[in-house]
């Protein structure tokens, strides 16, 4: 039976060695860029901004910047979370989904209370920040007050301005370049040019959390359009 099987297979299976194969043309590759759908753009921007905000804020810690900060996604203890969010970003580019941000009433109150008591702001001065937090809780985007980029997650400055992560990092870079001396540099807001302490910046941020990513195939996913930031 074995010999018969070998005989049958010998007519179907052919073994080739590289040394015996010739005349095969090289592979032809083509790179195609696909425009992201609106659902993919929305999911990607929420996830990317969430990660970018973490990196910017932890990078502003002059004592333990970047990977040395225990809350940074670059810290070795947070490697699992970093891998998870990168995987979700890839999935978001393959059809979209939903990445909800959550903010409790307690965390919202703590941010407003910090602005009133610690920073001495009036209630009317905090209206843009209050509106932003409510919009983010509803899954809506707000506008960076420097570059105009619309993001669901923004960084609140101690002068009550709203900046995207890139603009917030630009504040830090410019302040560090202009600083001279051994003391910790203060950060200058791009919008109003006010100086503020980086500790206030970190403690002021609303405690948004991500409850995870849910993959959803959106209606009309075959139609491509839009673009990611």
Explain the overall architecture.
- With 229 residues, the protein is mainly α.
- It is built from seven helices and ten strands.
- The chain has helices at 2-12, 38-59, 79-92, 105-118, 127-137, 165-178, 198-204, and strands spanning 97-98, 101-102, 142-143, 150-151, 155-156, 162-163, 187-188, 195-196, 209-210, 214-215.
- β5 and β6 form a beta hairpin.
Report the biggest beta sheet as strand number plus sense, adding barrel if it closes. 2 strands, antiparallel
> How many β-strand stretches?
10
How far is the first residue's CA from the last residue's CA? 65 Å
In DSSP terms (H or I, runs of 4 or more residues), the helix count works out at: 7
What structural class should be given to the helix and strand makeup? mainly alpha
Q: Could you tell me the mean pLDDT?
A: 83
Low-confidence stretches: 220-229
List the secondary-structure elements in sequence, H or E.
HHHEEHHEEEEHEEHEE
Rg: 26 Å
Strand arrangement across the biggest beta sheet: 1-10
Query: So what's the overall shape?
Result: elongated
Strand percentage lies at 5-15%
Helical content band: 40-55%
Give the gist of this structure.
It is built from 7 helices and 10 strands. With 229 residues, the chain is mainly alpha-helical.
Please outline the helices and strands:
Layout: H1 2-12, H2 38-59, H3 79-92, E1 97-98, E2 101-102, H4 105-118, H5 127-137, E3 142-143, E4 150-151, E5 155-156, E6 162-163, H6 165-178, E7 187-188, E8 195-196, H7 198-204, E9 209-210, E10 214-215
Antiparallel strand pairs: 1-10, 2-9, 3-4, 5-6, 7-8
């Amino acid at each position: 039976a074995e010999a018969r099987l070998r005989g049958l297979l010998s007519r179907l299976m052919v073994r080739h060695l590289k040394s015996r194969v010739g005349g095969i043309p090289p592979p032809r590759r083509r790179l195609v860029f696909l425009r992201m759908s609106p659902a993919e753009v929305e999911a990607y921007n929420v996830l990317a901004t969430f990660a970018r905000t973490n990196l910017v804020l932890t990078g502003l810690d002059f004592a333990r910047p970047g990977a040395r900060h225990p809350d940074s996604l670059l810290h070795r203890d947070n490697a699992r979370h970093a891998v998870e969010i990168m995987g979700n970003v890839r999935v978001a580019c393959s059809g979209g989904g939903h990445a909800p941000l959550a903010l409790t009433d307690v965390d919202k109150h703590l941010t407003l209370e910090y602005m009133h008591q610690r920073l001495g702001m009036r209630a009317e001065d905090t209206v843009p920040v209050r509106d932003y937090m409510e919009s983010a809780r509803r899954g809506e985007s707000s506008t960076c007050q420097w570059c105009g980029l619309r993001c669901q997650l923004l960084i609140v400055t101690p002068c009550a301005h709203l900046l995207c992560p890139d603009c917030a990092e630009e504040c830090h870079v410019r302040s560090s370049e202009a600083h001279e001396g051994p003391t910790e540099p203060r950060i200058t807001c791009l919008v109003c040019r006010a100086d503020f302490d980086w500790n206030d910046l970190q403690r002021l941020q609303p405690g948004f959390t991500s409850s995870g990513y849910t993959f959803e195939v959106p209606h009309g996913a075959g139609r491509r359009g839009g673009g990611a930031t």
